[in-house]
Amino acid sequence: NNFEDVLIAFKNFEPDIVVHFAAESHVDNSVLGPKIFLETNIIGTFNLLQASLEIKKILPSLVFHHVSTDEVYGDLNFHDAKFTELSNYKPSSPYSASKASSDLLVQSWARTFKLNYVITNCSNNFGPRQHTEKLIPNVIRKILSNKKIPIYGNGLNIRDWIYAKDHSQAIISLHEHGVMNEKINIGGEHEISNLSLVRHILKMMGRNEDLIEFVSDRPGHDLRYAIDNSKIYTLTDWKPSQHFDQNIQETIEWYENNPDW
Average pLDDT for residues 163-192, to the nearest whole number? Predict the structure, then answer.
């Protein structure tokens, strides 16, 4: 959010590709305090776009890659077809509304200022080092400390999970294949309900389900996310790994070995 510092960094480095991961990203936090989400996700993206335009004067081929979320599309019923790049935007939370806004900023800067861009909308990420506010690390840490695991509502809300390394490889693959001026979905192809996921982690960690505690549902809680990967499969040779248990195990071990995060 400090444009002057951002611009200095851009001018010193002169990037040919900018990959914009930075965001406030926890839905619960956006419900409790939306303002920082507007400042970081909207104004922060604006600052990076403006800095990119300055570099574009030197490197006209600069590509601005905006990393976004499937949550911009709202949610699906259990039997609905998966989100595609043509799905309508129907954000449900201050978080997803701020990301939808930043997506639209990138699209409009591309059209108005001829800035080369990529927008990727990915599913839920997980892996070692993830902030402990997120579901999977929160569950692991609750189990390690023998505390109750809160689950919203009935726990049947479904998410598609992607391992962080897979997500990064997808982004690298897009640029290795020279993809630009496209909007692309990136999914892990592993849909699972929150309740089933928690039960699975409990089983992997050798604990029973008495730690589960159902709590009042999140306001505006999306029912299901699911991503259609068809487009990225046609543009690259990338595929998500199908080693969900192995990836979860690596994640568990990291938090076991780093109790203070």
Answer: 98
The pTM of the full predicted model, rounded to 2 decimals, is 0.96
pLDDT grade for 17, boundaries at 50, 70 and 90: very high
CB contact set of 239 (below 8 Å; sequence gap of 6+):
233
Cα distance between residue 261 and residue 258, in whole Å = 5
Based on the residue annotation, tell me whether 163 is a catalytic residue of this protein: no
Residue 129 carries which DSSP code? T
* Angle, alpha carbons 88-165-34 (nearest 5°): 45
As a whole number of angstroms, the distance between CA 188 and CA 105 comes to 26
- Told to judge if 71 belongs to the known catalytic residues of this protein, a careful annotator would answer yes
Active site residue 255: no
Out of 73, 75, 95, 255, pick the active-site residue. Answer: 95
pLDDT beyond 90 at 237: yes
The answer, yes or no, to whether residue 4 has pLDDT greater than 90, is yes
- Catalytic choice (24, 70, 75, 103): 70
